[in-house]
Records
---
Amino acid sequence: MSSAAAALRASALRKADESARVTRLFFAENGERIVECARMMAAAFDAGGRLFTMGNGGSACDAEHAAVEFVHPVVEKRPALPATALAHATALVTAVGNDEDFTLVFGEQLRVFGRRGDLVLGISTSGQSSNVNRGLVVARELGIHTIGLAGKDGGRMSTLTDFFFRVPSFNVHRIQEAQETLLHVLWDLVHVIRGEEDVLG
Amino acid sequence: MKFVTEYRDAASVRALAAAIDREATRTWTIMEVCGGQTHAIVRNGLDDLVGNRVRLLHGPGCPVCVTPLDVIDRAQAIAALPGVTLCTFGDMMRVPGSHSDLFARRAAGADVRIVYSPLDALSLARRHPERQVVFLAVGFETTTPATATAVGLAAKGGVTNFSLLSAHVRTPPALAAILDSAGHEVRAFLGPGHVCSVMGAKEYEPIASSYRVPIVIAGFEPLDILEGLLRAVRQLEAGRAEVEVQYARSVRPEGNRRALAAVEDVFEVCDRRWRGIGSIPKSGLKLRYELRAHDAERRFDVDLAPSLESTLCKSGEVLRGRLKPTECPAFGKACTPDTPLGATMVSSEGACAAYFGRGAWVPAARLTTKGAA
């Protein structure tokens, strides 16, 4: 292997190691709260609640991913649960953003579609995304359970949620990687708590 | 002068410098964040005093210096509109825009006023309901509460002719951005004492622990700075990375809750371009949507030509600690306080102005025993 290729390989391995380290540290610090959160989510689904997810950019992708996991389960026989990502309605997001303000794109949708007992999951690497935080504020007003995922210093999000999870990193990629793992784990635990078999390890 | 003289005591300062020399086992590179600290360091020769063991880098803590060029151009364009009075702090008057500065605009007939507080601008708006009064809001967390108070009072009092052009910035994202930049050499920070008097020190804790850098929140007198440096060196030598408050006579860990609440009511976080540095995510503050009636950027539709930065100006590298002012080819030649190319030569917190003030521009060959030739 040439020295340039070796350097790139070493860089890739360093990043993979760092990603694993950050994710392990995050789960070690938050394990109990993750289980509590999953219990809360399971109870909400049992009572007929629905999940709304919010995020921008990469976090919008993660929000859609989370919604898809619940609606279209990867494990056969696990039931579909109602979930939707609020950034996927492009026409609605651009209408509110253009006519009013981009900070309102999620909150305004929750006012129309959300009900007491539903769940809202806000994803942001900084915890400072105004539209996500406003959505969480609106959710609280409506009696919707709130979950926040952030990184860095957590921003404002920590004060706006029933459950708040901060990935201990300032690297956007490492934060997103840990958040993705959390989303998978939460989905899995919700089903296990609701009586499904723990088949995923 | 009580509470000032003690903090300038030469014997105490020399004792702290000796302690740094004794306890440091190598040269540590430390960045002081605040421009006020830069000026105190340069004015008092503290960088030379500790130079054996501490290499000081000057940080981006000069809000005038980092105000984006397009905001300066927009302020000038708004000031030129009929019926508008633009109010600003004094050190913004000479900051070069793409083509001009606010002093020149005033000379050309624009109504531009220097104020000492945003509340002065609000009073002006109340006294002159026939004019549109715009306050150019520049500053870190230290000055944001006063701006927030002015906007809050305007909103409650129905002062509809008062609006804000906000270029307020937040310091923690700037520190993270510096630590994220390739090739940085920062091993510890002297944190900004007055900023933390408002915001507290807690927001820096995740930065210290994630990046493994000590952050010592220090004051602005020579003793504050030397003690701050000593504490940072002690942490570095011990392999610790914590937030410490040296400036305890002003900073509480939780900050000033009332000031923070005032800011929270009026502003929300946004991305912000820093002049010379680039965009730093979530590093700015803009008016909340509910207060959009007081947002000058929405109120005044001005045509702006693309912003043009001087190709000679190296302010950006100075602000990131990559270049000392004296290493800039234009320093003391094309760029002086009378003919500034960039904001760092204009502002009272700018590193270039600090170096110029201590005569750093005078070539050594011109200095004689009787003084500069």
Note: Chain A touches chain B through 18 residues (CB under 8 Å).
---
Amino acid sequence: MKLLKLILLYLFLISSAQADTIYELIKIPNLEIYNLKTENKLRYLNAKQAFTIGVDNNINCFKSSKQDLDKKYKIIEKNLNRYSQNFLKKINLKYIVMCEDLSISGINTAGIPDNVMKTLIVDIKFNDRYFERVLHHEVFHIINDSFKNIFNQQIWSSFNPKEFNYAECSTCTKKIGLETYSKTAGFITEYSQSTASEDMAEVFSHLMYGNLPATVDPILQKKIEFIKKGLLKIDENFIL
Amino acid sequence: MIEKIKASKSEKIIFIFVVILGLFSITSFVLLKDKCWVIKDKLVQAGDVEFGKKGNIDYGKIGTGKSGLGTIKSEVDKDFNYTKGSVGLARSLKYDTEDSQFFIILQDEPLYEGEYTPIGKVIFGLEALEKIKYLNKSEYVLRPDFINTLRLFN
């Protein structure tokens, strides 16, 4: 019995120490290592308890069950393995944090990217219908934040009809639909119409997921070419 | 005793200069801390030749000092296992800010791989580091332990 208690205490101390190291590196508490041995050196972490971060403690996420983690990890890894170690280094993404019921200022979100801390937080319980595509959408925000000059929002906005204006922010509009339009008119989803960066992320995610509509209009075609060229500027070996 | 791994030219230059200048002699050890906590048995850090020298310690700034010899580029792509006794160069949140400060870990830290530039491993005497003075509740330790001398062996 005493030996069992000592073993449990030892495991607890090791776990606490690793959680402290994780916090030291990426400033998110209550995480543990899920998997470090990956092809492209991405490091997967998961919430072992709920955590709260952000300037006004406005970001919250909760612990997932092992079963859910294991199931979703396979999907996440399969999709993120498409990014090479070299590319990930260039865009400054290293840590994937898996948790559920992720929200920012009370609004549920699929992911929160942070290229400064090299981290992408992923809500593993996000709508299964869009889950895989949305992973790439969130990765694009990391790409965009690391290469704002390549993915210039003014140039992007100039592709749109003159009378069109994006909203001030992605949550300042009711345009949140993620269903892919079968007939496009410069935009691939309703959510694309929220902001320029969301529009770019939606186009990119469709390119990666491979579910572009059968026919695209000339404006959307320009946007697709813009994204493709931008990616090749970052990494000439990037494969869509 | 630290066995040095094959370092880049820039790492060698700054490390050798700092040792030759004797700047490393008598700098204090700092227990890694983040605002309010200190973790015993985790890591010791030294090399703050600006604010950590005996007789000239600035408790408010220790851990933030520079050598005055410039910073060097991070080299975190080397295959290196951060096992207990590994030595690495400290940096700020940004890469390419390594200077004279270095740390020695007292437990395995696999997350440090790819984060910190490795420079060697302790091959003898690690148990001495485990006796470095620390204090759980304070931000700093009064009358800390110091490095007496540091020598580079080829």
Note: Helices of chain B lie at 9-20, 126-129.
